[in-house]
Design brief:
Its EC number is 1.1.1.133. It holds the Pfam family RmlD_sub_bind. GO terms for molecular function: dTDP-4-dehydrorhamnose reductase activity. The protein has a domain of 199 residues: Rossmann fold, CATH 3.40.50.720. Helix content is 40%, strand content 14%. The protein contains eleven helices and ten strands. Strands 2-1-3-4-5-9 form a six-stranded parallel beta sheet, with helices on both faces. Helix 1 links the parallel strand 1 and strand 2. Helix 4 runs parallel beside helix 5 and helix 8 runs parallel beside helix 11. It is globular. The two termini are 32 Å apart. 44% of the residues are buried. The structure holds NADP nicotinamide-adenine-dinucleotide phosphate (NAP). NADP nicotinamide-adenine-dinucleotide phosphate binds next to helix 1 and strand 4.
């Protein structure tokens, strides 16, 4: 039997390209990205591509405008690329999935939340974005649900992997700072939930196989401050702990001009719902130990 074909948008990106590396023996991925000549905003060209691949019954939609700082510069602008790519691009994908009776997995973000909650965010919590990227991703989630499609919204957070030259993630930025002995002070008064991309890939495999519907947080099993992250990275990778300096998000925000993107104070997310399906999401420490072994 041949491999199952999956349409993926944005498979050349940070998350998508690792997914393909890990799962390419199991699935035949068709990548709709700009560098494969497919613009999800060009509905006529996109429709043709869907028609050519209509035997694919699963569509994984990763392509997005992901630069949160650049997104903030476009805030309120519905003609801007961030809005068009994240909201209108997602609508195009959902419309075509409906036409070809496909199951859609939309990859979203912890930034749909405000970060003001005391405690851990679950899938039950309401959207309350505080900046433009999160706002557009929130609207895109609504496009997916309003489409009536069989669909899943899979939220990920601070994804990291061993290697990807085009883009650094939070973990590799810290490792680089430790190597160069110039790590900037790390916030001790912020909580985030870093996620090993290998876990996201194997977690998505579950969705491909089971066509699971609903909202899921496919995030790591440890929520911690960037300061604690850096300490743990220094420990696992054998750097001097003294290279990690304590910083403060509150202080940083006070010192910046009013024009900077609002930052989230607490993005602790629960992955219990995804884990209850049998999906394995490593603790931050275990993920680092695995990452250290990868070339
Ligand atoms: N990275 C994070 O910290 C993070 C956190 C939470 C959620 N997410 C979500 O996870 C998903 C993947 O993120 P990522 O970091 O892997 O993204 P990324 O590295 O920024 O890659 C973006 C992808 O989108 C494609 N793309 C951009 N414009 C396109 C267009 N007009 N038509 C078709 N494809 C287009 C890019 O293709 P080209 O390479 O060809 O330009 C690339 O493959 C996104 O939906 C993002 O919102 C990311």
């Amino acid at each position: 039997m041949g491999k199952i074909k999956i349409i993926g948008t944005g498979l050349s990106g940070l998350v998508g390209s690792r997914l393909v590396e890990l799962l390419k023996d199991k699935y035949e991925f068709v990548d709709f990205s700009l560098n494969t000549g497919v613009d999800i905003l060009d509905l006529a060209a996109l429709s043709k591509k869907f028609a050519q691949n209509k035997e694919a019954i699963v569509v994984l939609h990763l392509a997005a405008f992901t630069d949160t700082t650049a997104a903030w510069q476009e805030r309120g602008d519905k003609n801007g690329l961030c809005y068009r790519l994240n909201v209108l691009g997602t609508k195009n994908i959902a419309d075509l999935c409906r036409k070809y009776h496909q199951y859609l997995i939309y990859v979203s973000t912890d930034f749909v939340f405000s970060g003001q909650k005391e405690g851990v965010y679950t899938e039950e919590d309401a959207h309350a974005p505080i900046e433009w990227y999160g706002q557009t991703k929130s609207w895109a989630e609504k496009e997916v649900f309003n489409s009536g499609l069989p669909a899943a919204v899979v939220r990920i957070a601070f994804p990291f992997r061993a290697k990807f030259d085009p883009k650094k993630d939070a973990v590799r930025k810290i490792i680089e700072g430790l190597e160069n002995k110039n790590l900037y002070p790390m916030f001790a008064d912020q909580t985030i939930t870093p996620t090993f991309i290998d876990d996201i890939a194997w977690g998505l495999d579950y969705f491909f196989e089971n066509k699971q519907r609903g909202i899921y947080h496919l995030v790591g099993s440890t929520s911690l401050s960037p300061y604690q992250m850096a300490k743990m990275i220094a420990q696992v990778f054998g750097f001097n702990q003294k290279l990690v300096k304590r910083g403060s998000l509150a202080q940083y925000q006070k010192s910046q001009s009013k024009d900077i993107r609002p930052w989230h104070k607490n993005l602790a997310l629960s992955n219990k719902k995804a884990v209850s399906l049998g999906i394995k999401m490593h603790s931050f420490k275990k993920a680092l130990l695995k990452l250290r072994q990868q070339p």
